[in-house]
Amino acid sequence: MAAFRNSLGLRAGLLSLLIFVGIVAFWQIATTPTAGTGPALDPEYAKLLGAAAASGTKSAMPTPADIGTTIWKHLVDPFYIRGSNDKGIGIQLAYSLGRVLLGFALAALVAVPLGFLIGMSPLIYRALDPFIQILKPVSPLAWMPLALYTIKDSAISSIFVIFICSVWPMLINTAFGVASVRREWLNVARTLEVGPFRTAFRVILPAAAPTIMTGMRISIGIAWLVIVAAEMLVGGTGIGYFVWNEWNNLSIANIVTAILLIGLVGLALDQGLAWLARLVTYPE
Amino acid sequence: MSMFKDPFDPKALLGGRCGCGGNHAAADHARLTAEAAPAGEEQRWNRVVDAAVLRAVFPVDAQRRLFLRTVGAATAMAAISSVLPLAAAREAFAQGGPGAGTPEKKDLKVGFIPITCATPIIMAHPMGFYSKHGLNVEVVKTAGWAVIRDKSLAKEYDAAHMLSPMPLAISLGVGSNPVPWTMPAIENINGQAITLANKHKDKRNPKDWKGFRFAVPFDYSMHNYLLRYYVAEHGLDPDQDISIRSVPPPEMVANLRADNIDGYLGPDPFNQRAVYDGIGFIHLLTKELWDGHPCCAFTVSKEFAAQNPNTYRALLKAIIEATAYASKADNRKEIAKAIAPQNYLNQPETVLEQVLTGTYADGLGGVKRDPNRIDFDPFPWNQFAIWILTQMKRWGQLKADIDYAKVASEVFLATDTAAMMKEMGLTPPDPTKKTIVVMGKPFDASKPAEYVSSFAIRRS
User: Fold this and answer.
1) CB-CB neighbors (< 8 A) of B268 in chain A
2) Which of B285, B326, B424, B287 is nearest to B116 (CA)?
3) How many Å apart are CA B224 and CA B219, to the nearest integer?
4) How far is the alpha carbon of A9 from chain B, nearest alpha carbon, in Å?
5) Cα–Cα distance measured from residue B195 to residue B253, given in angstroms and rounded to the nearest whole number
6) Cα Rg for chain A, rounded, in angstroms?
7) Whole-angstrom Cα distance, residue A19 to residue A9?
């Protein structure tokens, strides 16, 4: 008992479980279908309606049990392909992940070198600052119509949107990390007559790495948020398209399944980058 | 001389033809179209092959005519077949050999919006109409009309399902850059409805609708024009007394449920879906406003049709065949089953069946039977286009003065469709004979400007 009282992790876990059970129980009670209050319907008419409408109510939220069945159905067979518009949820997630990683990688390729430049040169920092400040707060989805119009390819457009939304946090964090490398370290490098490239790779990069990784972690989070919305707009493939397609069918159970999976994948991406960030941190 | 004209007819006119595409002067139209087109598929194909061979032998029209006039068509054919292996050519053609005009591009992408209007475009995939004509078509579900327009303009789609006013708007550059766009086939006629939220069950008179918030699928849609027409006929100004916003069809039911809108004039299955989910009721079917109005369309860019003539023909044939199949009431249940899965419409089968068979729950407790709730008819009457243009003009979407008839005939390709229908053994209708009556008011397609100014409520 004493061990339990002392272990914070165990107690927090138990509390999480209790909250989960509480939510599910509340959900179950709130969504249990009640008998319809309307007058009895003509059986021929009732046959043409959905279950809820036939009992005189609006179609309701699915119960936790319905959701469970749906999730199980998707987990058992996540990789089926039944035509170009109907693919398993695993395949859809893979499409989305592919887009996010590609857009993210391109953004890193641009943002890290550019951030280096900005961080090292106060002149360039001042010159580019107005552009960054104006473009940074623009919602990535606002770029979508422009991207579709100019790029004329929806697949590249959605990757572009991921690129544009993940580029800013990385750029700003890299610039900040590079600019705030301790003067002493740079001075030591200079006294040892280390060349500029060597300084950049052996001194500045390791010193700024934790800040850069933080920027990347923010970026991937944003990218994963945005891809769902972008795919809902453009359609075709991806988890966002899956949500949209199930919305077409007003199938809340499928949408909840997708929400849970999006959350889990987002968590995994975040933890992955957190792990990478731990690799490059150093004690001062 | 075009592929579809009859080269055996020495009297065939070479220029200045009738608007229907037939090889006769406009004045002779009624008399000549009465002749039956060759019946049966084999005969039809044979006819095409014979024609091709004859044209190859006599490339100069004047010589061919002289020869035919001298010896007669039957003798001419016999004479040619004694020299050329005509039977072999016919066979090669029927099997899709080189004579058939192999499609330049076999793998095609056709975009669609998941609504029952797109039935022929969609069902042609699971039911094999595309593959029958040697095409490998991927039908791609698309999220909204603006996206389908942009993807089509970006050439991501080779052909697309659009609302019938959209190719007109695109060609005129209304709401996008002007790109010559064509509409060789209508998909469906009728098949839309006004759905109201259940709380408005006692407000069946549009005069009580002041302040209502309505949704339509797109600004350039029959839905928008019909809703505006309907409320305006009841004395409401659609821009001031009610609000109309464009909402993608799948979101209409969700918005109605959330009480964001009071009703919508939208495409099926979302009218029936509102009833199915106990959210709304069907106030009226649009066929009660204008029986036989067009709605959605099969469209391609002019460029695609010109660069890939054989693909274009094969595609159009597949669509016309699918449309003809869908127009038969007996096939409707089978079609509902074919297009219900997730890959296509992703809807409960019973909802689609109610829409397509016309035996449906109206949401007020009654079962209604109207086999013409939705129908499928590919013929792109130019009069439809002119009516749509008058409404664009009426509501201020179209600012400039245009030549209604010219735009209509450039976009709505009645000529191509008629030729194709004839070739397939279907009888195309007389393109001059179309009467349009909207809410009891007849429309004279030859006087579009007068029609626009005859309305009391208008923006221009």
Assistant:
1) none
2) B326
3) 6
4) 41
5) 10
6) 26
7) 15
What is the interface pTM, i.e. ipTM, of the complex?
0.71
Q: Which of residues 252-271 of B touch A (CB under 8 A)?
A: 253-254, 257
* Nearest residue in B to A49, CA atom: B276
Of the candidates A50, A235, A247, the beta carbon closest to that of B278 is on A50
In this complex, the residue of B140, B250, B277 whose CB is nearest that of residue A59 is: B277
The residues pairing with B368 across neighbouring beta strands, listed in sequence order, are: B360
CB-based contacts of A137, cutoff 8 Å, min separation 6: none
Residue B445, amino acid? A
Which residues have a Cβ under 8 Å from the Cβ of B367 and sit 6 or more positions away? Answer: A42, A44, A45, A48, B359, B360, B361
Beta-sheet strand order (sheet of B263-267): B243-246, B213-216, B263-267, B192-197, B280-285
B75-133 confidence digits (pLDDT tens): 666 666 655 555 554 544 444 433 356 778 888 888 888 888 888 888 888 888 888 88
User: Which of B151, B268, B369, B370 is the best residue to mutate to test the A interface, defined by the most A CB atoms within 10 Å of its own CB?
Assistant: B151
Cite the beta strand spans of B122-253 per DSSP E: 136-141, 159-163, 181-186, 188-190, 192-197, 213-216, 243-246
Which residues sit opposite B243 in a β-bridge?
B213
Which amino acid is located at B239 in the chain?
Answer: D
Q: Which phi and psi angles does B148 have, rounded to 5°?
A: -65, -35
User: pLDDT tens-digit profile of B394-423?
Assistant: 988 888 888 888 888 888 888 878 887 887
Contacts of A48 in chain B (CB under 8 A): 275-276, 350, 354, 359-361, 367
Q: Do A84 and B343 touch (CB under 8 A)?
A: yes
| B361 neighbourhood in chain A, CB within 8 Å | 45, 48-49
B189/chain A closest Cα distance in angstroms = 23
Q: Nearest 5 degrees, angle CA B289-CA B291-CA B294?
A: 100
Give the span between the Cα atoms of A71 and A77, in whole angstroms: 10
Rounded to the nearest integer, the mean pLDDT of chain A is 85
B449 class by beta-carbon count within 10 Å (0-12 exposed, 13-18 middle, 19+ buried)? exposed
Nearest residue in chain B measured CA to CA from A232: B143
User: CB-based burial of residue A263 (10 Å sphere; 0-12 exposed, 13-18 middle, 19+ buried)?
Assistant: exposed
Q: Which residue in B399, B388, B395 sits closest to B448, CA to CA?
A: B388
